[in-house]
Amino acid sequence: AFISRQRFFISTATQFLSLLLRHCCSLALVVLYSATLDAFVIGQVVGAAVVLVVSRVIFRHGHKLSGDHARSGSSHSTISIAIVVYGAAGACAMQLDKVLLSALASPTLTGPYFLASTLSLVPIAFLATPVAQFVQPKLIACLVRNQTEAARRLIVRLSLALTGLAVVPGMLLSIAAPLIVPHWLQGSADQDIVISYVLLLMPGTSLGALGLVPAMVLIARRDYRALAVMSCVLTLAVLSTTALLAANNDIRGICITYALY
Predict the structure, then answer these.
(1) Which residues of the chain have pLDDT under 50?
(2) Quick one: pLDDT at residue 114?
């Protein structure tokens, strides 16, 4: 809803505070109550519920609907639903692979894959996303004002910035994986397997950082339906392929699938 109303700073701040609060709640319960998975999950749920209530109060207080705004409420709801579907589909694609793997494959295979996927998401989650969130409001402003040439130059600069700040460092991390993983895992017996998975996954996630550019253009042009449809189709494709490969204990195939995704 905040994105549909172009409140990008509030949206980004809400996401950051949501993540921080969820982890603080989980940490408090694990340390003070019980060091169990149940306590961790309860903390995540409590933190998410608090953020949901607070964000809804802020949104309703700052955007009271009346007159023309009331008549446009249905269009805002449609936009918000499309954005929610887009985000939810992406989240399912990035999280349900571990669930499918643990349910359909040998449980011992889940650990190395989880470690490899965590390290492999560094280029897109920690390097590319902050750059994209910084540029997004400027790109939207250019398109709203019909400044096509300025928007084109901004897209080119963003692509170059993502290449230099995410793609290239991601490729370098991939090359350095045989050196980084042993220090990270401290001589774990699974480190060779984790390295082999990282070498498959990280080139894909590094290049995937450039996928933020067309997504941002579609958001700037308010084509949320296209985003939602594409996200759902890709999510169904990657999860169905992952389920098939997990049933055959083909973890390398899953890594290749997600690298392509």
Answers:
(1) 65-71
(2) 87
**Measured between alpha carbons, how far is residue 127 from residues 14, 173, 205, 249 in Å?**
19, 12, 11, 32
SS (H, E, C) the chain: CCCCCCCHHHHHHHHHHHHHHHHHHHHHHHHHCCCCHHHHHHHHHHHHHHHHHHHHHHHHHHCCCCCHHHHCHHHHHHHHHHHHHHHHHHHHHHHHHHHHHHHHCCHHHHHHHHHHHHHHCHHHHHHHHHHHHHHHHHHHHHHHCCCHHHHHHHHHHHHHHHHHHHHHHHHHHHHCHHHHHHHHHCCCCCHHHHHHHHHHHHHHHHHHHHHHHHHHHHHHCCCHHHHHHHHHHHHHHHHHHHHHHHHCCCHHHHHHHHHHC
Q: What angle do CA 32, 33, 35 make, to 5 degrees?
A: 95
- Report the candidate in 206, 201, 223, 217 with the shortest Cα–Cα distance to residue 86: 223
At 148 the pLDDT is: 85
Return the exposure string of 77-87: e unless at least 16 CB atoms fall within 10 Å of the residue's CB, then b.
Answer: eebbebbebbe
* Identity of the residue numbered 146: N
Task: Report yes or no: 180 and 173 within 8 Å, Cβ to Cβ.
Answer: yes
Query: Among all chains, which residue has been given the structure tokens 């070498």?
Result: 199
pTM above 0.70, yes or no: yes
Long-range contacts of 147-154 (CB under 8 A, 24+ apart): 151/220
- Give whole-number Cα distances, 132 to 8, 161, 170, in Å: 11, 9, 16
